[in-house]
Amino acid sequence: MRLFPAVLNLAVNAIITTNATCGEKGSEMYCKLVEHVPGQPARNPPQCRICDQNSRIPHQRHPITNAIDGKNTWWQSPSIQNGIEYHHVTITLDLRQIFQIAYVIVKAANAPRPGNWILERSLDGVNYQPWQYYAVTDTECLTRYNILPRRGPPSYAKDDEVICTSFYSKIQPLENGEIHTSLINGRPSADDPSRVLLEFTSARFIRLRFQRIRTLNADLMMFAHKDPSEIDHIVTRRYYYSVKDISVGGMCICSGHARACPLDPATNRSTCQCEHNTCGESCDHCCPGFNQKPWGAGTFLVKSECEECNCHGKTKECYYDQNIADRNQSLNIHGEYTGGGVCINCTHNTAGINCETCTDGYFRPKGVLPDDPNPCQPCSCDPVGSLHATCVKDEKCAEGGMLPGFCHCKTGYAGESCNLCALGYKGYPDCVACSCSVKGSLNDDPCIGSCICKENVEGENCDRCKPSFFNLQQDNPRGCEECFCSGKTNVCIDSHWTYRDMSGWYLTDVPGLLQVTPQQDSFGGPQRLSISNVAARRVLPLIYYWSAPSPYLGNKIPAAGGHLKFTISYDLTGQEEAVQTILQSDIIIEGAGLRISTSKEGIHLQPFEEHTEEVVLKPDLFTVHGTDSPVSKREFMTVLANIKRLLIRATYSYGMSAIYRLSGVSLEAADRYSTGRKVASAVEVCQCPPGYGGTSCEKKDQVNASSNLTPTNKAKSCWPRHRRVNGTIFGGICEPCTCFGHAEFCDDLTGECMDCKYNTGGPYCDRCLPGFYGDPTKGTNEDCQLCACPLTIPSNNFSPTCHLDRSHGLICDECPPGYAGPRCERCADGYFGQPLIPGGSCRPCQCNDNLDFSIPGSCDSLSGACLICKPGITGQYCERCADGYFGDALDPKNCQLCHCNINGSVSEICNSQTGQCECRPNVVGRRCDECKPNYLWAPEKQFCIPCGCSPLRSMSLRCDMSGRCICKSGFMGKHCELSRQVHKRKENPRATQQIQVPSQRWGFTGTSGCPRGAYRPVALPGTFGLQSSRGCVPCNCNSFGSKSFDCDENGQCHCQPGVAGKKCDRCAHGFYNFEEGGCTPCECSHLGNNCDPVTGRCVCPPNTIGEKCDKCAPNYWGHDIVSGCKACDCSVVGSLSFQCNSDTGCCSCHPKFSGDKCTQCRPGYWKYPQCIPCDCLLAGTDPQTCDAEMEKCSCVDGTGQCSCKVNVEGVHCDRCRSGMFGLYAKNPLGCNSCYCFGLTTRCSEAKGLIRMWLTLKPDQMVLPLVDENLQDSTTRGVVFQHPEIVANIELVMQDLQSEPIYWKLPEQFEGRKLTAYGGKLKYAIYFEAREETGFATYNPQVIIRGGPPTRIRTIIRHMAAPLIGQLTRHEIEMTEHEWRYHGDDPRVSSTVTREDFMDVLYNIHYILIKASHGSIMRQSRISEISMEVAEEGNVSGMSPRAHLIEKCDCPLGYSGLSCEACSPGFYRLPPRSSGRRPGPTLGTCAACQCHGHSNMCDPETSICQNCRHNTAGDHCERCTVGFYGNVRGSPEDCHPCACPLTIPSNNFSPSCVAEGLSDYRCTACPPGYEGQYCERCSPGFSGDPRTPGGSCQECECDPYGSLPIPCDPVTGQCTCKPESTGWTCAGCKHQHVRDGVECIFCDDECIGLLLSDLDRLNQMTLSVNLSGPLPPPYKMLYGFENTTQELKHLLSPQRAPERLLQLAQKNLDTLVTEMDELLTRATKVTADGEQTGQDAERTNERATSLGQFIKDTLQAAEAVNENAVKLNETLRIQDKTLEKSLQALQIEGPQKLFGEPTEKNEELKNEVRDKMADYKNKVDDARDLLREASSKIREANRLSAINQRNMTMIEKRKQAVESSRQEAEKTLKEGNDILDEASRLANEINLAVEVIYLRDITTIQPIADELKDKIDDLAQDIQDRMLPEKVLQAENHAAQLNESSAILDGILAEAKNVSFNATVAFKAYSNIKDYIDEAERIAREAKARANEAICCNKTSRQEQVSFKSMF
């Protein structure tokens, strides 16, 4: 609800005063300005009126109260007739109390509105501040008030902006003008006033300070040159202020809490009628009992109502406490912990912030609410057993299972009131301890029977832990816990420390990738944080957690056994009723790579329920998160040793509108210095071995870290120069420190090196210390060498720092003044010495500071001899002025040029002390540049000659530069040798003025308290004299010249007309004859009323010469007919001559000097009068101090320091500040800051980069059009018309419904474009529309969106709107300047920062270029799209060097120009924060976690690449398949699996796993193998896998002949049935035969006899003697015959080799034919080369297969040969024929059959191969030539198009320049012709004048008497017609003509450099023509008058002759 009183006119009830009102000092007359202005209705004569404040006539009184009485009367100030001080009049309004002012309206009456004035405000009437300034002109806003004018109607950009305007100070209207000043409307927060605006508009006193009356321009000129007292009163009476009405619109300040503010008649003050539970005169505080929220002023949008405190009905008093509000500890009446109301004076034994708890000795039972009428009951604590009478007050105070009302018992006592003995104690009320320990015994009653100890407890009373155990606890079934001690010892005891609380929180998901800040911030102490689920779910998933701040993290082993306590609750703010609750783990602790959590069941929390949870930090309460696996004591302690994250569940409901709260979080941690009550016995204190510390030996002692121990799980430390990663003891790894061998130790967590040696420093000992240089990364002791600047000895080492440059070697950084060179090895200019010799140094040259440093070598660098002094100085020590100079070279150092006049001096050398030149005769002056008095310079004679003035007829013997004397009255001529007649005028008697002296002239006491004739000065004069005791000083007014003896407060007397001076004791200018009553006016109007103040004789103004006193004397300027001429005062040192410009007074300066008088150094020079060049670097200097055309910048005159841009330093502004780079002229800051993604501040400009262009690809002929938000896209209506992409808007808008629309650039303009910085984005646009201005005109021209994931930005660029039908090219610099953030008003938005701009370039998402222009578009086009990027290359005309790209000095792990990439061996972590800086926008680069087995990993996923040492896994964390071991970082971590042997033939399992510390088990034994190492065969298999080459073979036992048991595991012998035999039991025993599946005995009566006969035959055969000749081997021959038949079949005609060779030959012939055809086709058609090559390859494959077939055939023949050889050996026959047959078969047959065809085939194959190779080479050459030709053709086409465009542009510019040149020459010729004609006419006029004035009068003297009357009449006629004045006008016009000609010459000179401006030339020609016409007209008149005079003269002579003839 808007509660604001109505806006009233506050001026009605105000007290108004002023310091001046007309008629206060008596009656005065005033006239209205409107009656004196031409064109206004006027009365004749004007009516003037009387103002008299003491008059009885009402309309003659104009008091200040008339301005606010609401009537048609007005207030009026005294006119400036009464004095110029009445320009300054002040009106003050006292509103009686402070109001909010909305506007002030001032209405003028019978005079114009004030000119210059200030509207001011005040709260106390003493200190005033401006509201608004008003000025006559915009210029006066700057000159008078130093404020930029606001043109047009007043407007405001800020709520408290004070502007200056001339809008209300115009002369019109002359009456009844109004001034409207709005203080609220039009300001930014007018609709909802801000605090700034409310303070700006608050005022009690309003002051109108008038400072200048608005006058007519003509009168203004008069006031500027005359004292108002000297101006006619009819003018001064009409200028005064008049105000008809002052309205002040305002309202009571009721702070937005009252709708009415009535006036109290008793106090005459307005009082607010407060609402919203507010009180006070201005409703400025909350009423009692309503302080839940802080008081706030109501606005138009927010009412800020005071809220009642929630004291549960126990009190009505409260106050607001901000600290309580910050901690969310105060409950409001809505049940929310919002606000800071604190209740006081609670009743009914209640206490607390909301009277929610009880006082000491009382408690609130469980279930009783705080708003119960009597909630608190008295405690009933037994005085014997309780500690004190205070019990647990409420549920919040309950701990350890206690309830409200329970008392705090002493040791041995128990019960609600402590009136019982505790378990283990007996004998109430004494309660003595029993013999058995309650904690350590298993007795049901510790007081009965012998003690039975728990498992880990010992002692007679079961009261102590066994060795290696600690922490005896009752609830531990084993009594004590085993010592953990990080596995380093088993000796520990439980601590006797006590727990302390830790308080100190954000919201996150379980992985920790996202973060949200809660609603309230941390302020220490107990907290209450809250988060809206709606806000959290914008970022976080369904289930999220509170994440603890740093005090809860790190080493928390002392927290073991302690309690984590916290209070949670949540509300449902929406309409949700029954919503399902979420069950998840309440606590998650993460550390050492392990995440553990409490039960998944969690807390069942209902809405609006507040629950306090206590979690004991014990292993058995936690499981591995996400599983049900229990946590071991070792894992639990490892997590506590380095907690990375501690999470408390925030979400308990699926309700979307929930608000979750967390408060009262505390974590108990043991502290030996804590004074808490709870003993931390669960914390072990171990006796750690050397090298370890901490309660559980979890810390490594750096002192003993150098012990040489192996890095295993049992290791106590790492090797020297290694670190234990993250300090992890169990499962940790040791990796080398990155210290380059310069440190022994590094930090386990950060890896930073400690105690760097060998002059190194930095986090990784990777930098040399100051004073040393080198490359520390080489890793030797001599990496950093002592700086030699130039020597290493201290006496000759002049630079404290140096560095190593890769190109130039050692560079010293800070050579002191006087030293130069890269190593300070030589003396600088102005210094001498030998710094390379031990003990040598550089000292200043003793040249009196007069060396010319602009020339190198001005002082000898070895001897110190002065060689080149400053200009004008010479001598051995530059101690005196050189010839041609004078002055003192030592002290003032003012040697100046003599400037001896060449004509007047004997030589150019002058006196070295005085500067006096040696003059020629009759020449005087220091420079010999003046003639003696009465002499003048004769140019033709080159010396001074006498003036020749007539001593009687001239005023003096002196003459002017032309030799003309000053004649007395009645004489004329150059030497005053002629007499002339002067027409005498009738003298009118001088009008006298009577002065009426007041009757009370003397003795009247003025307002100053001094008597008449005296005044009280502001500051008493410091002279001696008589003064009255009251400090009054006599006026001493001259009685003749003053109107009275009175004077003003400054001692100025009131002078008579024509009298001047402070005492009125002399005549004013233009008056003479000082006497009583004043002075007489001079009658010298033609000389500016300059006359002798005594005689009144007319005299020339000072410093003028010429007959008419119309010229300035030499070395004077600024001729004024009244004041004469002013001295030039040109500088002796800086000016070329003493003569200045006669019009401007500006002297002609030497090149190094400037200023009107050449008294300053020219911009670019300093140290006047020497004026040394500043040598400021233009690119680094503030442009406001530079002249861009001259390329010179000014500097501080005393020091030569140039005015550097913000990021530039150095005397000459020639280098970037530290952390900056890229000095660039167009950069307003000079240098760019090092961006480097926030990783470093050290960078430089990248070298070796060139600019290349990104353009559209050939296939990208159509670009899509999109809307501004990329919601819709289309290519409909978009076509390519070379060279433009054209869009038909009518078709486009069918898909895109709204404007503006944009062209979207393709993908090559997206992605990482950091190297585009400093380049340009170029394009050309064209459009056709009905109107140029439309809806989209003010939308951004270019939109770019991009950035890393956490810092995505959209930036825009506004450009000038193109014109309809005109191709417009835009070139946009890709720097942050001129870019704005999207959505900001372009008039007030801020420029994009460099950091944000670089963020966008890091990853450009898209670039949009506006296609919408004008209104009702028909067509839009775009072309010539390109963007410059940088890449490495050589500089050329087409590829210029790239500037402004940074090359950062990246820290370890980062690479890229801007450190945007991770170095090899590092990967990117997710960014930690998405907020504003500080902090890198990208994630940190961390070293690859590859366990020392790889140096490379994926930079984004961190997955290791190329794992070595037989490791595998994402982090090389496990052994690869076939290897086993524990990966710890050693190359020998993984050993090959021996399953059972390592050789491939006996390694039967591809994988194995470690088992124990040094053993393994093979995991993939193939079938048939078994054992830990696959070392034996499985049942059913046989063999010996442990023997090289051995394996397990499946038993091949005959299923019918063998028993069903495995064969022998080694030999494979099967176990046969009784009748079977053989290795596999497949055979039958002797005299047994197979019958089906069985062996049956066959020794019967029939078969048995046959078998016996066969046995006998066999015996007989064997008994034959075979030692004799061998019988024919028929059996073998039969076998050979069978083999021969098989061979014959194989060698049948179809399969014979001859047939095959024939086929091969045929194929070869065909192949050759095809090859010839292919070669022919290849020669004719190169385009088919690729297909032919494929055919040739296929043919080659056929030839290869044929060759392979032949080889196979040969191999078969060789096999036949081998068989034959074997057969021959078997037969061993002597038959030569058989042997020959065999040999023929073996050798000759195959050779005959295969030899020849094979050789031919090989020859053909080789020939084909050669031809194919030759053909392939030719085809490849042809293809390369075609590719190169195509590339060159494309490049030539592109260059041709560019050249054509450039030639067209150049030709157009050439034609335009030629046309302009011809026009300029033509105009100049016309001007010269006109000028010649004007000069000719001027010469004729001068000739005519000379004829008139210089005609020899003596020839007509005899008839002078007769012609006297006619001559007098003629002279009178000439004077009446003002012929001299017309001649003077002609001369003036001729001078103007010369000036115009000079202007034209300047225009022509400018046209020669740039294109000629035809408009300027035409105007110049028009002006010349007008001037010439005017000159011709005046010249004609003058000539006519001259002809009349000549004619009259001739007529009189004829009459005289005729008269003589008569006599």
From TrEMBL:
The keyword Zinc-finger does not apply. Keywords: Basement membrane, Coiled coil, Disulfide bond, Extracellular matrix, Glycoprotein, Laminin EGF-like domain, Repeat, Secreted, Signal. Residues 500-685, 1248-1447 form the Laminin IV type A domain. CDD domains: EGF_Lam. Residues 1-20 form the signal peptide. Its main location: secreted. GO terms for molecular function: extracellular matrix structural constituent; signaling receptor binding. Residues 1750-1881 form a coiled coil. Pfam families: EGF_laminin, EGF_LMN_ATRN, Laminin_B, Laminin_I, Laminin_N. Disulfide bonds join C379-C391, C409-C418, C453-C462, C756-C765, C815-C824, C869-C878, C881-C895, C898-C910, C900-C917, C919-C928, C1035-C1047, C1055-C1064, C1100-C1109, C1128-C1140, C1130-C1147, C1149-C1158, C1174-C1186, C1204-C1213, C1507-C1516. It is found in: Secreted, Extracellular space, Extracellular matrix, Basement membrane. GO terms for biological process: animal organ morphogenesis; axon guidance; regulation of cell adhesion; regulation of cell migration; regulation of embryonic development; tissue development. Residues 1-251 form the Laminin N-terminal domain. InterPro entries: EGF, Galactose-bd-like_sf, Laminin/Netrin_ECM, Laminin_aI, Laminin_IV, Laminin_N, LE_dom, LMN_ATRN_NET-like_EGF. This is Laminin subunit alpha 2.
